[in-house]
Amino acid sequence: MAYVSGGIVTVLVAVLAFFASNPAQDYAISVDPVLSKGPGGTYTHVTIKNTGKQPLTNVKVDYGGLTRPEFIPVLTPDEKMMLSPPDGSDLSQVRVTANDGIDIVQSYRSPLNAPLIGNGGFGQ
């Protein structure tokens, strides 16, 4: 009986791992804008990742404010990029659009910083 239940658990774990590692949608993107203030100044970055099964084309990252949008011709599945908003950006939110219906507006988040650990949000 123990072998049967152990086998069932193994199969369930394998099925969950398969679905967790395979994207569910053809076109999807993750957007993580970070704003971190510390003694050395303000650090910002925007991490984008293609979380879909298909390449994303004509990706436009609009930082707002007086800046020009940044264009990425192709972002392949699982490709991740860390971008730095230029001076003059509106540091409240970022808008990312791409072909195939991608249109995401994401507010900046401010990570908690621990003095002994360093800047918790920059460089991740």
Question: How do the helices and strands line up, and which of them pair or pack?
Answer:
Elements: H1 2-21, E1 29-38, E2 41-50, E3 56-62, E4 70-75, E5 80-83, E6 93-98, E7 102-107
Antiparallel strand pairs: 1-2, 2-5, 3-4, 3-6, 6-7
Task: Write out key terms for the chains shown.
single chain; alpha+beta; 3-stranded antiparallel β-sheet
Q: How many helices does DSSP assign?
A: 1
The CATH class name of one domain reads Mainly Beta
Number of beta-strand segments: 7
Read across the widest sheet, the strand sequence of neighbours is 4-3-6-7
- Overall shape: it is flat
CATH topology of one domain: Immunoglobulin-like
Biggest sheet character: 4 strands, antiparallel
Q: Kindly report how far apart the N and C termini lie.
A: 46 Å
Helices and strands, in order, run as HEEEEEEE
Which structural class best describes the helix and strand composition?
A: alpha+beta
Mean pLDDT: 83
